[in-house]
From TrEMBL:
Domain of life (superkingdom): Bacteria
Assigned keywords, A-Z: DNA-binding, Transcription, Transcription regulation
Organism of provenance: Streptomyces sp. R44
GO MF: DNA-binding transcription factor activity; transcription cis-regulatory region binding
Official protein name in the record: LacI family DNA-binding transcriptional regulator
Entries under SUPFAM superfamilies matching the protein: lambda repressor-like DNA-binding domains (SSF47413), Periplasmic binding protein-like I (SSF53822)
Domain HTH lacI-type residue range list: 18-72
Length: 349
């Protein structure tokens, strides 16, 4: 029998909301004590604090979000936008890197009592003007990104990459792109590569600008020509076509190593190399900048350069929480080391 049939076809009336005074009465404590216990304030013994919290859990008490916001002066909302995807603002979750970065940002924020709101890239004025955002994460902003400029002008704390270093109200977490590229190229050279080619996005983000510069300097230091193919848009299709272009030279100077900085599926990159007549790793050493788990399961397994999105997200949220809850206002930043996972695709026996 359903609830509706037991009440003459009418749905059951909603249960009354459990109030703070109900929890206090049940626990045998004052409202002030229970409020302090649930908000982590006041000088209470661990036993009293746990009693209040356990009673609230058992009774299904939920604090009034509006009242909490008025008391704290915060909505506990963090905006999140990917600057590099302004032309296709909702496609970034198709990227393993941005999917992991977004998930880790949301999970870390939630542990600190904040919810994440996904926003489209581009000029955000119309989207965020009516939202009570406490702060905004701008992942991979483009050069002179209007989103960052608009948010800082509005006095909203921003977490983004190192391009904002020193700006009031801006906090950054970044990876050392130059060191990462040099580490990958040095590894390929140690394995015997002398004609590496690099596939990179045609992008103005700080990360990709540093990749270009590091590759140029590395080639100059080793007396090698720069072999670069740029990809005009994200996605497996454009990147795979760029890989095929990079490997199309059939002469004696054809590439003997491939570093793909533009994100693409590891199996598809290997297939593209084979279509161009390369055996990996015998003819061609391969390293991808990637967070794609399929790299572990290809034949051979693909070496990857990880930008460690979980570490980036955790450091970024910690910066924002420190600003929002402890009033820290001086610009601050963190440089997260990358990780090169060497596998069969870049090892020669």
């Amino acid at each position: 029998m359903t609830e509706a049939s037991r009440h003459g076809g009418q749905p059951s009336p909603p249960l009354p909301r459990v109030r703070l005074v109900d929890v206090a009465r049940e626990a045998g404590l004052s409202k002030t004590t229970v409020s302090a216990a649930l908000n982590g304030t006041g000088r209470l013994s661990p036993e009293v604090r746990e009693k209040a919290r356990e009673t609230a859990r058992r009774m299904g008490y939920r604090p009034n979000a509006t009242a909490r916001r008025l008391r704290a002066g915060r909505a506990r909302l963090i905006g999140y936008v990917v600057g590099e995807f302004a032309d296709a603002p909702w496609t970034f979750l198709e990227s393993p890197y941005f999917a992991r970065l977004t998930g880790a940002t949301a999970a870390t924020a939630l542990r600190r009592g904040y919810a994440v709101v996904l926003l489209p890239a581009g000029s955000l004025q119309s989207e965020w003007a009516d939202l009570s955002l406490d702060a905004v994460v701008v992942a991979d902003p483009v050069a002179d990104d209007p989103v960052v400029e608009d948010l800082l002008a509005a006095g909203i704390p921003v977490f983004t990459d190192r391009s904002v270093e020193g700006l009031p109200g801006a906090y950054w977490v970044d990876v050392d792109a130059g060191s990462a590229v040099r580490e990958a190229l040095d590894h390929l050279r140690e394995q015997g590569a002398r004609r590496p080619v690099v596939v990179v996005p045609d992008s103005t983000t700080r990360f990709h600008t540093e990749v270009y510069a590091a590759h140029r300097d590395w080639c100059a230091a080793h007396g090698l020509p720069e072999r670069v193919v740029r990809v005009g848009e994200p996605g497996n299709g454009p990147v795979v076509r760029a890989v095929e272009t990079a490997l199309a030279d059939a002469g004696p100077d054809r590439p003997d190593a491939l570093l793909v900085v533009a994100e693409a599926s590891p199996p598809l990159v290997l297939e593209a190399a084979r279509r161009q007549g390369y055996a990996v790793p015998d003819d061609l050493l391969v390293v991808l900048v990637s967070e794609d788990a399929t790299a572990l399961h290809t034949e051979p397994p693909v070496s990857t350069l990880s930008l460690r999105p979980e570490a980036v997200a955790e450091a970024g949220v910690e910066h924002l929480v420190a600003v929002l809850e402890h009033g820290r206002r001086e610009p601050a930043g963190t440089l997260v080391p990358t990780r090169l996972d060497v596998r069969g695709s870049s090892l020669r026996s």
